[in-house]
Write a structure and sequence with these properties.
heterodimer, A: mainly alpha, MetI-like fold, three-stranded antiparallel beta sheet, B: mainly alpha, two-stranded antiparallel sheet, flat
Chain lengths: ~425, ~475
């Protein structure tokens, strides 16, 4: 460009305006390129943020209805000859509920129709009645009003996820079932309320009876094991490498190792856990203890790297002051350096724990995908964790499970947001610049 | 639970040991702690460490070794006819582990249905041995704790250099902790290598690396027809590459342009808002991305393709790759952001001074200077895309398919590892071992990418100071 304008200047020594024109023409082009480039950057950011927004909107849009659930209020006759007060567990509560439902629709009489009608009751409904009778045995011989959960398909109908206007063949419920539901709704027997089942029960094949509590408890035990192991080991390693380790090939090897471990795919840690902890040491499958061990190995590099950075940021003057007053090296570290580096270390640990909470691939390898109905009682009971529960539910095509999967994701994200916010708060509150 | 109680008791003893050690040090000094070599706390700590560490190490070792020892004893006591297959052949691993599970379940009282009296007897022996083992452990561990405490307690004297001893113990513990990282790497390499060698004994390594047919069904019975199993992993490698490539096509332009905008153009306020928002993308668990890909993106792409008259698989590589790309955006952008901001300000000003516009400066001065770092970051992102599991497990296909068409379903290395290993498995079948061979390939490739990335950054980095 320079040579070109120089040539132009030589060819027409007096034509200053011509030079200016050439330059200006170039300038316009260059400014356009400038604006284009800038727009590319803005578009890139908007695309990324748009994806983020789409992700959140889909998940919240699909899942917010999972937080409430509809139940059926039935007045059930409990005849004295049907329930033995000494042995409450043996009675046929399902039969009683069915009779009560049948009483609402006397016109239903063929077997097929009755079956379609009774599909409205959740498989867990008899337990609700049993609990009601157990709570107040005086109802035997009289009748009792109980709230029983609706089957998930009817719950979806109540929430509007099944469109009653579609042709019958295109929805999961028949015309008759929709009509019965609408009749019950008109009689005011269908009621929506906060979905406590979701937060209090374990997994289930029936969507309306399944909950995330089992997975939350499993995640808790797994993270507890991870924290108990990875924090002390990580901090000790960081202190050793940063403060004591002589510069030699051995410590170099450790450092290279840690950096490489940070980039190993998580599923490889699962293979390690399967081969070493399950095969070689014979630890139980599906146990949070093993999950915690695997996640410890996975989060250690994160914690070590963050802890070393925190130790590095403590100024040498503090160390020298401590040493000058006669402290031993370990005293200097334990009494002065470590307390000052602790906020940074804790921040790193929380971020590591958040990673561990969201991790599922290595846990699939060590059997934490089992279908576990019971709430685990300790780190050796078979259990699953929240992300794996999401993975399991995501496989079920029913709309009710899609809704629950999204709800479980929201709970998981809420935990993660909370942990990351705690890390940020910790950093802001204790950050010191020397 | 009983184990936790035992550990709590040991910790309690440690605390008591600390008090006693401290008290004794004050007593031997006649109440004048200046006569002691170290502060009284160190004498207490010395006793406590001797009480706690050997006992806890013993508990861990016992827990690790107990199951296999009991297993050997119980199996040794079984009548030989149980250890045969129904057809009289020696028992295989699958049946053996089934038998052991039975014994274990009956021993813990979970199932009371088993018929074979020999198995029930073995279960009783199993339970008995467990009880004996636990009793023995309690006795041995507690005596080790007390013995250690007494041993250290007797050393306490004014001349005893307790601080030096305690510090060297703590230092030894720290060295042991830093060995965990090496042991992990060693464990990964050894377990992958060992199982892979067993696999290559059954399937030649050339067939695994260069075969184009993957159908890992092995025969359960020797007379079964048509399931000899084929372990040619090329379709998996191709599928992994395809999805990773799509992911990089999304992540690199978006991530890089976003990083450039944020580093060079964005006002401070915009940067303060947008940067954390992008970091959120990095913090979302991969299982959530998988759900998003399978539930929203894949049907969207299928329907759009349908409108255009294309036949798109509902598990298309495109959906998985796109979502994986979104996941990697913040990874690329934050790494590039770091290297771009690290380019010294004087180079920018020099370029402006020569009359270049901002975008010309970026394209001709800053980007070339930052290139090694950017390339390193992209290589790290590729290694992450190759090892990513949940998105592809949930959104990519299961059947192997050697194709370069992103609209078809392909399967990947990680998907196959998961499908081969989820659920109960026997450890001698080629099917299970194949997963370890795949893991070895994955580990080697990602490690190589990381090493190359570090090398690129180190070798080609321009030193400005």
């Amino acid at each position: 460009m320079d040579t070109r304008s120089a040539k132009a200047a030589r060819a027409a020594p007096s034509g200053r305006s011509q030079i200016a024109e050439t330059v200006n023409a170039g300038l316009r082009r260059r400014y356009r390129a400038e604006r284009r480039f800038r727009a590319y950057g803005i578009i890139a950011i908007l695309v990324a943020l748009g994806m983020l927004a789409t992700l959140f909107v889909t998940i919240i849009g699909k899942g917010y209805t999972a937080f409430w659930q509809h139940s059926l209020e039935l007045n059930v006759a409990v005849p004295a000859d049907a329930v033995n007060p000494q042995d409450l567990g043996s009675a046929n509560y399902l039969g009683l509920l069915r009779d009560a439902l049948q009483a609402q629709f006397p016109e239903v009489d063929t077997r097929q129709e009755r079956r379609a009608l009774f599909a409205m009751l959740s498989d867990g409904a008899p337990y609700a009645l049993q609990d009601a009778v157990a709570e107040d045995p005086s109802v035997i011989g009289r009748s009792v009003t109980v709230q029983v959960a609706l089957d998930d398909d009817f719950d979806m109908l109540a929430k509007g996820h099944i469109d009653a206007n579609l042709p019958e063949a295109q929805r999961r419920l028949s015309d008759a079932q929709v009509a019965w539901y609408q009749a019950l709704a008109e009689r005011g027997m269908i009621e929506g309320h906060f979905n406590t089942t979701l937060f209090t029960s374990g997994d289930s094949r029936q969507a309306e009876m399944s909950g995330i509590w089992g997975a939350v408890v499993g995640s808790f035990f797994t993270l507890a094991v991870t924290l108990a192991l990875s924090f002390p080991i990580g901090v000790a390693t960081a202190v050793y490498l940063e403060e004591f380790a002589p510069k030699n090939r051995f410590t170099d090897l450790i450092e290279v190792n840690i950096n490489n471990l940070a980039a190993v795919p998580s599923i490889v840690f699962g293979l390690l856990g399967l081969a070493v902890f399950l095969q070689f040491f014979g630890l139980p499958r599906s146990a949070p203890l093993v999950g915690g061990l695997v996640l410890t190995l996975m989060t250690l590099p994160t914690i070590i790297i963050a802890s070393r950075a925190a130790l590095k940021s403590v100024p040498p003057s503090i160390r020298e002051a401590a040493l000058g007053l006669g402290a031993s090296k370990l005293q200097m570290i334990l009494h002065h350096v470590l307390p000052l580096a602790m906020p940074g270390m804790l921040t790193g640990t929380i971020i590591g724990m958040a990673q561990a909470l969201g991790e599922s691939a290595p846990l699939l390898m060590i059997g934490m995908v089992a279908f576990v109905v019971d709430i685990p009682n300790g780190p050796l009971d078979p259990s699953t964790v929240l992300p794996v529960q999401i993975f399991l539910w995501a496989d079920s095509p029913e709309r009710a499970f899609v809704e629950r999967t999204s709800a479980a994701i929201m709970v998981l994200l809420a935990f993660l947001v909370f942990m990351n916010a705690a890390a940020v708060w910790l950093r802001k509150k204790f950050e010191r610049r020397w | 639970m009983q184990i936790l109680l035992l550990i709590a008791v040991v910790l309690g003893l440690t605390l008591i040991g600390f008090r006693f050690g401290r008290l004794r040090s004050v007593r031997v000094a006649g109440g004048d702690t200046r006569k002691l070599h170290s502060l009284p706390t160190y004498y207490g700590l010395y006793v406590a460490l001797w009480c706690g560490i050997p006992a806890l190490v013993l508990v861990a070792a016992w827990m690790a070794l107990e199951p296999s020892i009991i297993r050997t004893i119980v199996l040794g006591g079984l009548p030989p006819e149980i250890l045969l297959m129904p057809d009289g052949a020696p028992i295989n691993d699958a049946r053996l582990s089934l038998l052991l599970t039975d014994i274990r379940n009956i021993a813990s009282g979970n199932i009371a249905s088993q018929s074979d009296p020999a198995v029930i007897e073995a279960a009783a022996r199993y339970a008995g041995l467990q009880q004996i083992s636990f009793g023995a452990m309690v006795v041995v561990v507690l005596s080790v704790a007390l013995g250690g405490a007494l041993f250290a307690y007797r050393f306490i004297a004014p001349q005893f250099r307790a601080r030096i001893r305690v510090e060297s113990i703590i230092k030894a513990v720290m060295v042991a902790c830093s060995l965990v990282a090496i042991l992990t790497t060693l464990g990964i390499i050894l377990s992958l290598l060992f199982e892979s060698l067993r696999f290559f004994a059954q399937v030649p390594i050339t067939e695994f690396l260069f075969g184009t047919n993957w159908s890992p069904q092995t025969a359960m019975r020797s007379d079964q027809v048509g399931s000899s199993g084929a372990f040619g992993a090329v379709p998996l490698f191709a599928g992994t590459m395809l999805i990773a490539m799509i992911a990089m096509c999304v992540a690199v332009p978006i991530g890089l342009l976003a990083a450039i905008y944020m580093a060079e153009y964005a006002p401070r306020k915009v940067r303060a808002v947008v940067k954390p928002l992008l970091e959120i993308l990095a913090g979302i668990p991969t299982v959530v991305y998988g759900f998003f890909a399978a539930l929203t993106v894949a049907p969207f792409i299928r329907d759009t393709g349908g409108l255009l008259g294309l036949s798109v698989s509902s598990e298309s590589a495109l959906a998985a790759g796109l979502v994986m790309g979104i996941m990697i955006i913040p990874f690329v952008s934050s790494l590039s952001d770091d290297v771009i901001t690290a380019v010294p300000q004087s180079m920018r000003e020099g370029s402006y001074g020569l009359g270049a516009t901002k975008s010309e400066t970026i394209k001709r001065v800053i980007f070339p200077a930052a290139l090694p770092g950017v390339v390193g970051g992209i290589l790290l992102a590729v290694s992450r895309a190759l090892g990513e599991t949940m998105i592809v497990v949930m959104a990519a296909g299961l059947a192997s398919n050697l194709t370069a068409n992103p609209l078809e379903a392909v399967t990947t290395v990680t998907v196959q590892i998961v499908t081969l290993l989820v659920g109960d498995q026997e450890f001698d079948s080629a099917k299970t071992l194949a997963a370890f061979a795949l893991g070895l390939v994955l580990f080697t490739v990602t490690l190589a990418l990381n090493v190359i990335a570090l090398h690129v950054v180190r070798k080609y980095r321009e030193q400005y100071e």
